From TrEMBL:
Record keywords: Signal
InterPro entries: CarboxyPept-like_regulatory (IPR008969), Cupredoxin (IPR008972)
UniProt keyword Plastid present: no
Provenance organism: Myxococcus fulvus
Protein name: Lipoprotein
Transmembrane intervals: none
Secretion signal, residue range per the UniProt entry: 1-24
């Protein structure tokens, strides 16, 4: 009688727990043994070659567009700032094109990985306007202006990754980039003409063309597909075969008529 009264006083979840504890656990079939992944070759055993080349825009490029600044920053930044989404040098050299290997996440790490990217704020523009970086890596932010700026990184769906106020000249901070590879637009809410973009990858085989449109990648020997990305031009691909100790020259040209606004 006392035992029955005690059991009735217990909460239902306790009785259920006691029943589960008293019953024998069901037998679980043994999981099949997973095969160990094939290890990547050690970097010391890898033979390396070089891919280098030049990216150009053929035809007469449109003149750069300008945006008026506001009265509070004219003394530092001037009355106008130029749009830097298209930077074309002599002989059509196209700067700030991102060149990368396609499907390179399984390749061994290079002896010299890309340097951590730095985004500066100079004369009321982001410098450089285009960066390439590892997904999930760190982006260094710097303010070289005696002005208040902010750096807001967001996705194409307006999801915000970070938003940092930088009120002091010379201040610097580091922020993590999204884990998923993709394109990260960057804006300043205080000065809406300021914009940049970061192209991120799940591997370290990428470069950004210099002012003369040139790039260089050290890669393992073998066949590789290069991807050329510019935010105002259609993506292009070229496949090359790299021999150990050799160098492959690649030219990528876009026509002015390919430009997007």
């Amino acid at each position: 009688m006392l035992r029955a009264t005690f059991l009735r006083s217990l909460p239902l979840f306790a009785l259920a727990f006691a029943c589960r504890e008293s019953s024998a656990p069901p037998s679980v079939p043994a999981a099949p043994q997973a095969q160990a992944p094939t290890p990547a070759r050690p970097a010391a055993d890898v033979k390396w070659g070089v891919i280098e080349g030049r990216v150009r825009l053929t035809g007469t490029p449109p003149p750069p567009t300008s945006s008026p600044t506001s009265g509070t920053v004219v003394s530092v930044c001037g009355e106008q700032t130029e749009d830097r989404s298209l930077v074309v040098g002599s002989e059509g050299a196209l700067a700030y094109t991102v060149v990368s290997l396609k499907s390179a996440s399984a390749l061994p790490a290079p002896a010299q990985p890309p340097a951590e990217p730095v985004l500066d704020q100079k004369k009321c523009v982001y410098d450089p306007p285009v960066l390439a970086a590892r997904a999930g890596g760190q982006l260094t932010l710097r303010n070289s202006d005696p002005l208040v700026h902010n750096v807001r990184a967001s996705s194409s769906t307006k999801r915000s990754f970070f938003n940092v106020a930088m009120p002091l000249e010379g201040m610097s901070t580091r922020k993590p980039l999204p884990e998923e590879p993709g394109v990260v637009p960057i804006h300043c809410d205080i000065h809406p003409w300021m914009r940049a973009v970061v192209r991120t990858f799940d591997h370290p085989y990428f470069a950004t063309t210099s002012q003369d449109g040139r790039f260089r990648l050290e890669v393992p020997e073998g066949s590789h597909t290069l991807v050329f990305w510019h935010e105002r031009l259609p993506q292009a691909e070229k496949t090359v075969n790299v021999r150990a100790g050799g160098s492959v020259q690649v030219e990528q040209d876009w026509a002015v008529t390919d430009l997007r606004q």
